[in-house]
Design a protein that fits this description.
The structure holds 3 protein chains of 3 kinds. Chain A is α/β, with parallel strands linked by helices. Chain A is built from 13 helices and 18 strands. The mean pLDDT of chain A is 95. Classes of the chains: A alpha/beta, B alpha/beta, C alpha/beta. Chains in contact: A-C, B-C.
Chain lengths: 432, 187, 329
Amino acid sequence: MKKKKKDITIRNGRVVDPGNGIDEVTDLHISGGKVLALGQTPENFEPQLEIDATDQIVCPGLIDLTVNLREPGNEHKATIASETACAARNGITTLCCTPDTLPVIDTPAVVGQIRHKARKAGYCRLLPQGALTKNLDGSHLSEMAALKAAGCIAVTNCYTPLANTLVQRRAMEYASTFNLLTIIRPEDQHLCNNGCAHEGKVADRLGLPGIPEAAETVAVARDLALAETTGAVIHFHALSSASAARTMAWAKREGRKVSADVAIHQLHLTELDLEGFDSNRHVRPPLRTDSDRDGLRKAVAENVIQAICSDHQPHEADAKSSPFPDTEPGISGLDTLLPLTLKLVEQGVMDLSSAIARLTCGPADILGLPLGRLTPGYAADICIYDPNRQWHVSAEQIHSAGKNTPFTDWEMPGRVTHTLLKGRLVFHEERL
Amino acid sequence: MSDNTTFMQADGVESLIDVMAGKIWTLINDKEITEPLMVGIRTGGVWLAERLHQELGLRDPLGTLDISFYRDDFTRIGMNPEVHPSDLPIPVDDRHIILVDDVLHTGRTIRAALNEIFDYGRPASITLATLVDRSGRELPIQPDVTGLHPSLDPDQHITLIGPEPLGLILGAKTNRTSRGDEQDKDA
Amino acid sequence: MSLSNKALQLDDEQRLLHFLTIDGLDRSILTEILDTAEGFTGVSERTIKKVPLCRGKVVANLFFENSTRTRTTFELAAKRLSADVLNLNISASATSKGETLLDTLRNLEAMHVDMFIARHATSGAAHFIAQHADRGVGVINAGDGRHAHPTQAMLDMFTIRRHKGEFVGLRVAIVGDILHSRVARSQILALNTLGVSEVRVVAPQTLLPSDARSLGVHVYHDFDEGIRDVDVIIMLRLQKERMRGAMLPSEHEYFSLYGLTERRLALAKPDAIVMHPGPINRGVEMDSKVADGSKSVILQQVSYGIAIRMAIISMVIGTQNQRTQEVAV
């Protein structure tokens, strides 16, 4: 019953495809949901739809490595339908959702349910991460082979990293048996000690319980050692310290099989932004110092950190309506992922091609999937945005169900005008 | 403050104080009061009371009242940032009090001062002495002794300046320089 | 929205709207609080221990954390200003029923409360309450988590000024659990704002914040060195539960290293004063002889606490009142 997909030509846009080293003004042709060709119109190709992308940027659809979609279990915060629609509006065509749902993504049934809902919504490719341990309990391995067969692209224990080093080792070994990537949020639970802010001068003054940098660096060192022992492929999610970024640079020089990402807000905000106790700035890992932010920026620019993610954590208003330490951590980040990344280009942190790479081929390569490039034959996941449009962040401009953003009133560069998923237009801006 | 004009200079004020001292002397003799307790209202009333206290040769030390905590316009203008403690060194119970202020205008300051005195105890009597008794009364309060009855327009304002030398100035509107009747004006 | 401390606490004319932290307040406003408190000291000694300043106002003591002493001094202060006082021990009632802090606030506001005096175990709670309070409702922080206890700090400043006259030139040592102490944080800010020449903190590393120097203090681990030639010694309360385990090995070792004894006190200036926010753990933070000795001003602190709280309550109510009327006009 599938409708045949339209043949499409995107005309005259500046095509930025870092994975293929392309940055030029040209046409992009799409057929059967796949990239057909760049440049001259192929013979006998007659597009049913033409998109004029003059003065626009055409790039691969963005891949967000870590989002929490809240469904199943917390639909009062957000749903798969609401968040995948939001992703489409923002040029994001692939979402990797975390398993900390209710129930946890630790059985093929839950994986199936989530993928079914995403397909039904139709906005976005949803790639679930499976639980590393059953119910994320930190002690019993999950049925990873079954999870992989059901469609999980990686395994992780999310916000509850394993305290028991032996279990961590076994989990990595078992995951590597099935070529499953282990995603680790490096954090030593004991050193965190119920903290809610970076242990440093701001937390000292505000009396906020601190999370030391060592909570991250200890975990990175431990898991790098375990990965070397086990030969497992691991990925560190959401680094927050310059010190961890330096360790990653060392690991890269050593040729270790390890990758890392950073949440976009870590590249813009610091502990100084906690003045006034704005609970929208309560995140985990915590916002750290200026030099941490600069160190992370450098690591992203040098491709030591290969991906930027939103670490999207949509919340209902109540979750943030308490004194700072009592609120739930996290930022609703889908709406600001691309603009905040483009801001790094404005600020001279890196060039446009590198910035787009961290949102496309970078995460695709971490996952080992044929995505994030405009290679002929690849799925035609495409983001078209107007780089000259500036907009101000406000609740109305946030399309996620979670309005918890610390970037209210920030001026953002870049507005997505079209998003294509497998050659199908899943979003285009209705201009007045 | 620039459009203030001098209404009376120091020697004029000092001679008014002499007149007041004489009247108070007569009054307390008539009432057969032997050892009155003198209390000045901050700030102008205190300057005045210090001089009267000396001229009358009163034995007990002078008391001072800061009526900031009793003002009826607190809810409109907030806390006076230059509040000083009231100081009544002698218990007021069963004592005859001479209450001294610089300008009697609406009567609200005296109302506040009376309330405050009664929070210290139950005096036998209170006699009111003011340097200036001007028009504009809003409460049924009259002085027993006064130095001067000027005829002023409602928007004119008379203020005692001091402490040395004393003088009376006339202006359209004043800042909060003393704790006289201008509280009603400010509100 | 996150307003700076200054914007949240002061109106355009630099008058107090809320009193949440010393952070962001300048010397003139702290001095104004101290001066206003001087005016209130006499009230407690009169026949009628009340002034009518806040008559008809309703002050709610919103205590999410138990503290009979602090609550009592606030209650007495509000009553001496003729305000009506509601005492709410929320820890026992609302939160156990799942009511959020915001629900509690809304309910009390519906009862036309004019002021919240809030104590809460979470840092930033007073800010949160102030940010969500109706216009015209003032908030005073009676202690939030490890963050701030500004009225305690101000009564300590009042005590110091009463005994030492000036702040300039003073050397002050704060001894004990700085890490968990909201009192110490507020004291350090107030002392530095008022211009003392040196603030020292004396504690083992486990009881110090990670970057103590950034608070504007000199750090001493050796009490004998830290107390030398100081004018004021402030001993902090040490929670019993911190005494055994990963913070400190034992009460015995703590007292031997950081307990205030007569021998140590002799190293300070001859006219030094000893302060403590109470309640004292005798034989842990200080020797009884010191606590009850001639240099101890601990009981004066308690009585000054009422005058300071009267000053702050009346200043905040005065400013908020005016704000309500601006709206009405």
